[in-house]
Specification:
By secondary structure, the protein is an alpha/beta fold. The chain has helices at 11-22, 34-41, 52-61, 71-76, 98-110, 127-136, 157-162, 174-184, 196-227, 231-239, 260-273, 279-303, 330-339, 352-359, 369-373, 386-389, 393-399, 414-419, 440-449, and strands at residues 3-7, 26-30, 65-68, 80-83, 115-119, 143-147, 166-171, 190-194, 310-314, 343-347, 364-366, 378-381, 404-407, 423-425.
Length: 451
Amino acid sequence: MKRIVMIGSGYVGLVTGTCLAELGHAVVCCDCDEAKIAGLTRGEVPFYEPGLPELLRKNAAEGRLAFTSDVPAAISQAELIFIAVGTPMAPGGEADLSAVRAAASAIGQAIRPHAIVVIKSTVPAGTARMVRDRIRASTDAPFEVVSNPEFLREGTAISDFTRMERAVIGSTSAAAADAVEQLYAPLGTRIVRTGWETAELIKYASNAFLAVKISFINNMANLCEKLGADVTELAEGVGLDSRIGTSYLRAGIGYGGSCFPKDVTALLKMSETAGHDFEMLKSVIETNREQPIRFMEKVKAVLGDLRGMRLAVLGLSFKPGTDDMRSAPSVPIVRYLLAEGASVRAYDPQAVRAAREIIGEGPAYTDDLESAVTGCDACVVVTEWPEIARMDLARLRKTMATPVVFDGRNVFSPGAMLEAGFEYYSVGRPKADPEDKADVEDKADVEDWNR
């Protein structure tokens, strides 16, 4: 058992700290926000992540997980000190490291000899050296710094930790790397040991490459629409090549969340600072920016003047399984519709509160799906929540004033929607021909969605 302190009790810190406690370590999660710490002490998780509240309360009750706002006292007792603070996008596009610098300064004032500082936050190359130097400026105690980036996905974070595909450990000290590797030994994961800068870049490279795949398939979807091809079938045919793979080849209205937008931009800024013109990333960013607006232009082209139209926006969070609204495609979509004079009913099972804070009071928000679609002139599917994918299509057809659906995530089958009586538009797929009948696969899909 190790005595571990997690500086930062946001998404990464809380999930990582709770999972390390579940592995048997004594973990203290710190945060300067006393209200947050008070809530965590009561077992209240300040964001939606399936399975986390139960795991947190279990480990707190069993004495392995605690919370405090007394950061220096916690640091002074720790063998491993994790920096898990936010690194949001600064106005210039680079990562804002102010919280990392503050954490390093606090560590320097209270660190015990031979402690190991583990940087879990997503940080640019060179940050581990900066953290080491900042701590050294405040203490003579020997210590080591390890870069150990996180690879957690919102909505599946617990399983991403317990079944992690790899642990990246960047260090100049073999002993420190060994100590961090031992933390993950019970998981049987693959260990990648590197230097600091390589470890720091691995996280950015991973997210940027996935963003490239998403923007590529969205560009292909736009081409498919012009040429009458089907991007879903195209993605299957391409993805079956083992060199490419099927993941992140699903066309839609773009990526969002706390990682891809800021990390791709930060990597571009790093490249510019280093004197490297990473032109591909510029294209990725621009494609993602344009994708939701392109979809809204399709809505307007079909419906015409949107003034006074009652439109249901289904899904607000950037992906299902989370209430995170950061860089969510729903934000420009709802704002576009409101600017065009539409009356918007915005549905999400988890993200209504967060959406209201970001978008404002323009839409009528609801966490009740049926109230969102009742009497609407069209539905715009933005987030592929299971509640949306499983809608009873016959009931939806009767509930809507006009059976028109714009599917920004390709949740439904064009043939199935045609059979159910909808005018249906998706991304990168040809509109179903009314003269054709839905195939057997389409019918099976309808049965599945209506279960």
